[in-house]
Amino acid sequence: MAEQEYWRWTEYRHHDESIDPRAGAIVAAGIDVGSVSSQAVVTVDDRLYAFSSMRTGSNSPDSATNALNWALEGTGLTPGDLACVVGTGYGRVNIPFADKAITEIACHARGANFMYGPSVRTLLDMGGQDCKIIHCDEQGKVRAFLMNDKCAAGTGRGMEVFADLLAVPIEQVGALSFEVEEEPDPVSSTCVVFAKSEATGLLRRGWPKSKVLAAYCAAMAHRVVTLIERLGIEKEFAITGGIAKNAGVVKRLQRELGVEPLTTTYDAQIAGALGGALFATALVRKGKGRKA
Amino acid sequence: MRANYGYKDGSGEFFITIDTDACPRCAERPCVAACPAGVLEIVEDDYDDQVAAVREADRRRLKYACAPCKPVSDPPPLACVSGCPAGAIVHSW
Which pairing describes strands A27-33 and A122-126: parallel, antiparallel, or unpaired? Predict the structure, then answer.
C-alpha cells in the first residue's frame, strides 16, 4: 500500500460553460510554471474562461504543456486557437510555445487587480518557494516589490513539510490550527529546518497536532509580516498564491497586521496565470500576438 | 518602481533597492560600470523600460557579493550608490 502523501493538494480544472470562446475576439492564455505548482488560464476577451492547477513536474516545458492541455480539456479549443500565450513563474523562460515571458511579480499584480478590483494597493503572494510583497496602482501596474526566495520559511513548501511531519492533509492544516484552547507562542520563524526540529520536540512533550500547527502558522504569519513591513502596507491589501487558502496563516496574518485582506470569489492561486493571460490579450491588441 | 532585490534569512536582511523610475531618464547608466563586482545590469522590465537591476545570479548572495565594498572599519561610500546620479540606489545593510 502506497504511503499517504499529506502534502499533496488536490489538482483541479474548471471552465465556464456560459462563455462561448468561439464568439470571442481574443482567446489568450497565461501559464504560470511555479516551483511547486503550475497553472494555466484561458481568457476570452478579458473574461476568465478556463483554468487548471496542477503539481509542477521536473520538466518546465512538460508542466506548461500539461497545465494548458488540461485547462483546454472539454472546451473544444486547442493550443492553436490561442492568439497569444504569456509565460510566467520561475519556469517562464522554459515554455517553448510562449510568445513572451513576464515576471510573476507583474502578472500577480495584474491578476490581483482583476480578481480583487482596482482598489488593491498591497499584494502578498505566498508561493510554493518564495514570498513576494507588491505595491501596485489602480491598473495593476507594479510600483514596488520585494521578493524573498532564498528561504523556505513563509512559503507553501514549508507548510507542506509540516503537513507531512504531522500527518495532516495540507488542506486541513488551517482549520485544525484553530482547534486550540489558547494561542501558543510561534515556533522558530527563521528556518523551516529548525522549525521542524522544534515541532518534533513539542510533539514529544505531548503537544497535540493542532497546537503545533497553530505555532507554525503563527510563525509563518510573523515571518511574512516582517517582510511586509519592510515595504510598508497600503490599503487595500490582498493575498494570492496557495497559502491564501490556508485560513490558519491568513487569520493570524490579519491579526498581526491589523489589516483585513480583501476576499474574492476567484481562486487566488491562479492570479499569476490570469495576469499572464490578461497581458497576452493586451499584447494582441497592440499587434504583438501570434494572431495579431 | 522601487525594486527590492535580495533576501532575508537567518543572518539578516540584504536588499538593494533601485528606484527604476529614474533609469529611463539616465543616458549613461554609470551604476553598472561603478560596481566592482558586476552585480548590476541593464534589463528590459515588464513594462518595456530599460532599467538597472541586480543580476539574477547575485540576488541570493548579495551579502557576499557586496562584502568587498563594506569593510568593517571606515567603510567608503558604496560605489553603486555614489555611481547613480539620481541617488536611486540604496542598500538595506
Answer: unpaired
CB contact under 8 A, B46 and A144: no
Per the CB < 8 A criterion, the answer to whether A124 and A132 are in contact is yes
Distance from CA of A98 to the nearest CA of B (A): 15
Domain positions in chain B: 2-91
Residue A9 has a pLDDT of: 85
Supply A122's cell numbers. 498591497
| Cell numbers that stand for A154 in this block | 513563509
d(Cα A38, Cα A52) in Å, to the nearest integer? Answer: 8
Query: How many CA atoms are closer than 13 Å to the CA of A255, on its beta-carbon side?
Result: 13
Residue type, position A281, single letter: T
pLDDT, tens only, A219-264: 999 989 988 999 999 999 999 998 899 999 999 999 999 999 999 9
For residues B54 and A156, give the distance between their C-alpha atoms in angstroms, rounded to a whole number: 26
> Which residues of chain A are within 8 Å of residue B20 when distances are taken between CB atoms?
none
Question: Residue B76's CB: how many other CB atoms inside 10 A?
Answer: 9
Which domains are present in chain A? 12-111+270-285 (3.30.420.40), 120-261 (3.30.420.40)
CA distance B47 to chain A (A): 9
**Could you tell me which CATH number the domain at B2-91 has?**
3.30.70
- Chain B interface includes A101 (CB < 8 A): no
Mean pLDDT of A151-159: 82
